[in-house]
Amino acid sequence: MEKKTMKPLTRAELEVMNVLWDSSLALTVNEIVERYAEPRPAYTTVATFLKILEAKGYVEHKRKEMTGRTFFFSPMLSREKYITHVVNDVKDSLFRNSAKALFSFLIQNEELSDEDLHEILEMIEKQG
Predict the structure, then answer these.
(1) How far apart are the C-alpha atoms of 91 and 99, rounded to whole Å?
(2) pLDDT (0 to 100) of residue 4
(3) pTM of the full predicted structure?
């Protein structure tokens, strides 16, 4: 999926995607609903979101030979690829394509422990 054609996900669509990303197997609508915390959404609600996600190019469905009419849904891109897209979009649109400005914002606006800051510095040192 190209960056320019990737349509943003709503919060509800993202919840469905998180269920799919957390599973190592393709899931039916019922299996997706079962993985939600209470109160669970209706079967038809999840089925509608899956249709939307498929139209956006995030999800695909297949039938397994033994199951007849049952569709199994799986993500077409990884959580990491989606996160990379979203973070790059935020960096480009809100921070004028500056990773430095984005990191500066995060460091100044997050409550980071000394341990967190130490780990971040170690990651930076490994990159340099």
Answers:
(1) 6
(2) 54
(3) 0.83
Residue 8 CB neighbour total at 10 angstroms:
10
If 0-12 CB within 10 Å is exposed, 13-18 middle and 19+ buried, where does residue 52 land?
middle
pLDDT tens string 23-74: 999 999 999 999 999 999 999 999 999 999 999 999 999 987 776 788 999 9
CA distance 119 to 103: 14
- The CA-CA-CA angle for residues 61, 65, 68, to 5°, reads 80
Tell me what pLDDT residue 76 has.
Answer: 96
113 class by beta-carbon count within 10 Å (0-12 exposed, 13-18 middle, 19+ buried)? exposed
DSSP per position, 33-62: HHTSPSSPPPHHHHHHHHHHHHHHTSEEEE
Nearest to 47 by CA among 67, 70, 32, 29: 29
Task: Please state the length of the chain.
Answer: 128
